[in-house]
Amino acid sequence: MRLLARRIQHLTEEINDLNKRIAEAIRARTPGLLDAHGVGPDTAAALLISAGDNSERLASEASFAALCGTSPVEASSGKTQRRRLNRGGDRQANAALYRIVLSRLRWAGPSQDYLHRRLAEGKTKGEIIRCLKRYAAREIYRHIAPANTAAHPMKPARDTA
Question: Three-state SS string across 54-93, please?
Answer without folding.
Answer: CHHHCCCHHHHHHHHCCCEEECCECCECCEEECCCCCHHH
